[in-house]
């Protein structure tokens, strides 16, 4: 699936913009603060309902406006589709497919994006929450129903923590907490689904990760990923189902996960009451990234961490490509090439060359390998220009591009 037209209104620093796109590779070129990242961020938002730059949707709405609109026309083979999202500063966001309202979480059924930005180095180096978010976002793309499961788990977790804090402050013993068992049952049921989903996802992602790292680094450093599951107290592999509906192979069954979760929760209960906090469950789990049999978070160099983080995103794109009914995700590389040496730039260029649509942002065109400069869209002084460089000997054209931007621009754009 690729974007053929992007229309935005009151998004970031744009009053309005209307941009025509083709399949293939597009380079958004411009100095910092011109708004080039805002355009690809709008496309990325349609695929994930999240910004890769800010945590609050309100920051996406232009200053002085109450609502931003992002609309895209999509194509895949002979199929055509239009989707749009209203981002509201107050009130719920609204999503439509072919002008029919749908639940926002269902958009991933129709359109997906994979974004890599310098901030993604945190996946390798920072705390577990980012890694959990990364896995859960992939889960939702593959099975949109997981969005509801995750939301329900977070709701139950919040209620259980409230009960534990109340018990701590009032010195109420566990056997006097009549509702604790009810919350335990719900936490275990929902948490087991998330654990199973993550373990299965990791197994499917592993070969793509190893291949992507080999392609980028031009070496086999044994890139791998495993899950550390607090309910199991160790890394685990989910068993496969046989033809009779039973389970075989692997390390652990779904029923065993459920029972070990319950056991670990009961064991942790005295400490939970002491701290007023749930200490076992998917919210405490982590993914471990490996290079040469060692944890990448501790041993990887800066360059290796960059290659690993980028490999994770390429592996995600390959996994979506292999499993999606809507074709490739739109691959977005936001200011990535400036951080790579010449060899990695060339290898990344080859790795992304066959994706249906790739959107690249850069401040310096020389950072982008020549084969990727098929289509250039220059953003300069608040004006969007289109230039087809290699095929037209430097002839520029404004055809199909309209924009209306504010005079002031965010420094981060």
TrEMBL record:
Chief subcellular location: cytoplasm
Keyword Nucleotide-binding found: yes
Keywords carried by this UniProt record: ATP-binding, Cytoplasm, DNA damage, DNA repair, DNA replication, DNA-binding, Nucleotide-binding, SOS response
Keyword Nucleotide-binding: yes
Binding residues annotated for ATP, in chain numbering: 30-37
Annotated Pfam families: SMC_N
Gene3D superfamilies: P-loop containing nucleotide triphosphate hydrolases, RecF/RecN/SMC, N-terminal domain
Superkingdom of origin organism: Bacteria
Chain ranges of the RecF/RecN/SMC N-terminal domain: 3-362
Localization terms from the record: Cytoplasm
NCBIfam families per record: recf
Task performed by this protein: The RecF protein is involved in DNA metabolism; it is required for DNA replication and normal SOS inducibility. RecF binds preferentially to single-stranded, linear DNA. It also seems to bind ATP.
Recorded family membership: Belongs to the RecF family.
Protein name: DNA replication and repair protein RecF
